[in-house]
């Protein structure tokens, strides 16, 4: 049987998204090289994968032997140089243009010409990232959702120069991972954040203007619109700093004041209230 083109993949960045992406590829049979420049980040990423697989086994949805096999398909490294001969690299490093620039420049220099370089960026232009390489036709957005092993959607974003062949291969790859690919073009926020972030921002305006309490705002959207989570709880989960960064990208990139970040969101980020990850956002998550 012919192996799928993503039989071997490298995932760069072992954080929240990278470790989930690595786990997902390994679950569907790929040999995965997980690379993170930070040894601690790498260790945490591998521990997150092991914890996640153990939970799936405990729930009775995976045999112990299969979990072991999945874990066995993942190797870990701290040097980007170790990525050489793979047909697909998925980048999931921090959302900073200069870091992505360095990573894509190096990957472009060391990977075979046919290797597809995908990015999991939530808001940076795919076209801009592709311009850091000499293979813009083989650079594409593969926007997985958090938590990756559970969420079905992958937004597949074509940059200005992304080829039909690259798009077709990556779309087929998403399907092979039992995900649902949704195609989008390269405009600020793509579809997911272009629609989601203004809703979150409007919820913060409602709170700031005293239209309702945080609980009422979340309850209206949960029970009234059938959303699984209210917008303020969701913002806490995503990270208020991340929400602010994406709103700034929308505001600058689209030049329309309807995307201006709410002053209360700015104030909360300035105060270090970043949501769940800092223990405090619109809600309090401190356990002691
Ligand atoms: P994270 O901070 O949890 O992890 C990023 C990892 O990248 C860290 O472990 C860090 O050590 C590593 N890293 C930094 N520089 C590196 C380099 N030069 N080479 C290799 N590794 C490097 O971030 P995350 O939340 O996993 O986000 C990763 C990407 O996914 C971002 O582009 C983000 O916008 C996108 N994204 C995030 C979410 C989310 O909900 N967190 C959802 C969709 C997309």
Tell me briefly what this model is.
This protein is α/β, with parallel strands linked by helices and 288 residues long. The protein has helices at 16-27, 39-58, 64-72, 97-110, 126-130, 164-176, 192-208, 214-225, 231-238, 240-254, 263-270, and strands spanning 8-12, 31-35, 74-77, 88-91, 116-119, 139-144, 153-158, 180-185.
Structure description:
The radius of gyration is 20 Å and the shape is globular. Helix content is 46%, strand content 14%. It has helices at residues 16-27, 39-58, 64-72, 97-110, 126-130, 164-176, 192-208, 214-225, 231-238, 240-254, 263-270, and strands spanning 8-12, 31-35, 74-77, 88-91, 116-119, 139-144, 153-158, 180-185. The protein has two domains: 5-185, Rossmann fold, CATH 3.40.50; 193-278, Orthogonal Bundle (N-(1-d-carboxylethyl)-l-norvaline Dehydrogenase, domain 2). The structure holds nicotinamide-adenine-dinucleotide (NAD).
What topology emerges from the helices and strands here?
Blueprint: E1 8-12, H1 16-27, E2 31-35, H2 39-58, H3 64-72, E3 74-77, E4 88-91, H4 97-110, E5 116-119, H5 126-130, E6 139-144, E7 153-158, H6 164-176, E8 180-185, H7 192-208, H8 214-225, H9 231-238, H10 240-254, H11 263-270
Parallel strand pairs: 1-2, 1-4, 2-3, 4-5, 5-6, 7-8
Antiparallel strand pairs: 6-7
Helix pairs in contact: 1-2, 7-9, 7-10
The structure holds nicotinamide-adenine-dinucleotide.
